[in-house]
């Protein structure tokens, strides 16, 4: 799929799933991002709320006993590792950024537990900047549409999108694609017959995958 069609498709998806900016304080988004890996939002959001209701600053979290953080964020996936990362990230913010979350991607990625996706999430949701956090939904859809090759890693997809798209399109991708991915372009058995961008999608042509019921992306 070329860039012209990708923009057209993005606008069609956004028409059906309008952008919902989940704006919040950058620190809150950072905490969310560190906890969210391999965990559903329905688990991450309540866990984040429990933690932030007890301590909502880097100093507050850094002073909590590790066991307390673990119990607050459980049952987030890998909660023991993530509890350690949260503490390390808070200490790093205190030591290096005067307890403030930076608004620069390379600075953000120095924080323990923060990779390109979490950094983009903080910039997009926390600072309202035109970045694209490529999660599993976004990466799957962009591959199925044929804008990047099958098997492209999220970090690479993110670079390609950020290079190719203008800011006004970038802000539509993450939110609209996530809702579209949950409702229509699901990981298994996508609802292609209900898809608003069916005519543009390259993946739907490979119907053998659906017949075999495989999950190849
Ligand atoms: S046609 Fe199917 S695979 Fe393609 S974007 Fe739509 S739901 Fe996803």
Automatic annotation (TrEMBL):
Q: Which UniProt keywords apply?
A: 4Fe-4S, DNA damage, DNA repair, Glycosidase, Hydrolase, Iron, Iron-sulfur, Lyase, Metal-binding
What's a GO biological-process term for it? nucleotide-excision repair
PROSITE patterns, per database record? ENDONUCLEASE_III_1 (PS00764), ENDONUCLEASE_III_2 (PS01155)
Task: Write down the top EC class of this protein.
Answer: hydrolase
Q: Where is the Helix-hairpin-helix DNA-binding motif class domain?
A: 106-125
Per the UniProt entry, the Enzyme Commission number(s) are 3.2.2.29
**SUPFAM superfamilies recorded for this chain?**
DNA-glycosylase (SSF48150)
What are its cofactors? [4Fe-4S] cluster
Looking up InterPro entries in the UniProt record yields: DNA_glycosylase, Endonuclease-III-like_CS2, Endonuclease3_FeS-loop_motif, Endouclease-III_FeS-bd_BS, HhH-GPD_domain, HhH_base_excis_C, HhH_motif, Hlx-hairpin-Hlx_DNA-bd_motif
Gene3D superfamilies recorded? Helix-hairpin-Helix base-excision DNA repair enzymes (C-terminal), Hypothetical protein, domain 2
Give this protein's Gene Ontology molecular function annotations. 4 iron, 4 sulfur cluster binding; DNA binding; DNA-(apurinic or apyrimidinic site) endonuclease activity; G/T mismatch-specific thymine-DNA glycosylase activity; lyase activity; metal ion binding; oxidized pyrimidine nucleobase lesion DNA N-glycosylase activity
- Residue ranges of domain HhH-GPD in the record: 35-183
Top-rank lineage group of the source organism = Archaea
Pfam families, A to Z: EndIII_4Fe-2S, HHH, HhH-GPD
Q: Which SMART domains match?
A: ENDO3c, FES, HhH1
Catalysed reactions, semicolon-separated: Hydrolyzes mismatched double-stranded DNA and polynucleotides, releasing free thymine
Entry's PANTHER family?
ENDONUCLEASE III-LIKE PROTEIN 1
**Family of this protein:** Belongs to the Nth/MutY family.
Name it: thymine-DNA glycosylase
Q: What is the lineage of its organism?
A: Archaea, Candidatus Parvarchaeota, Candidatus Parvarchaeum
């Amino acid at each position: 799929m070329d860039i012209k069609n990708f923009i057209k498709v993005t606008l069609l998806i956004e028409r059906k799933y309008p952008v919902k900016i989940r704006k919040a304080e950058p620190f809150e988004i950072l905490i969310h991002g560190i906890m969210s890996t391999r965990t559903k939002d329905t688990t991450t959001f309540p866990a984040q709320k429990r933690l932030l209701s007890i301590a909502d600053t880097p100093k507050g979290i850094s002073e909590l006993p590790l066991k307390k953080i673990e119990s607050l964020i459980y049952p987030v996936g890998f909660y023991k590792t993530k509890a350690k990362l949260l503490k390390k990230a808070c200490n790093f913010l205190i030591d290096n950024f005067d307890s403030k979350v930076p608004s620069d991607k390379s600075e953000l990625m120095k924080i323990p537990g923060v990779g390109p996706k979490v950094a983009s999430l903080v910039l997009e949701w926390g600072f309202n900047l035109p970045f694209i956090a490529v999660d599993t939904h976004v990466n799957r859809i962009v591959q199925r549409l044929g804008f990047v090759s099958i098997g492209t890693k999220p970090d690479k997809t993110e670079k390609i999108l950020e290079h190719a798209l203008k800011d006004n399109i970038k802000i539509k991708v993450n939110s609209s694609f996530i809702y579209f991915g949950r409702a229509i372009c699901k990981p298994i058995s996508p609802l292609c017959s209900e898809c608003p961008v069916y005519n543009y999608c390259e993946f739907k042509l490979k119907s053998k995958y659906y017949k075999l019921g495989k999950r190849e992306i």
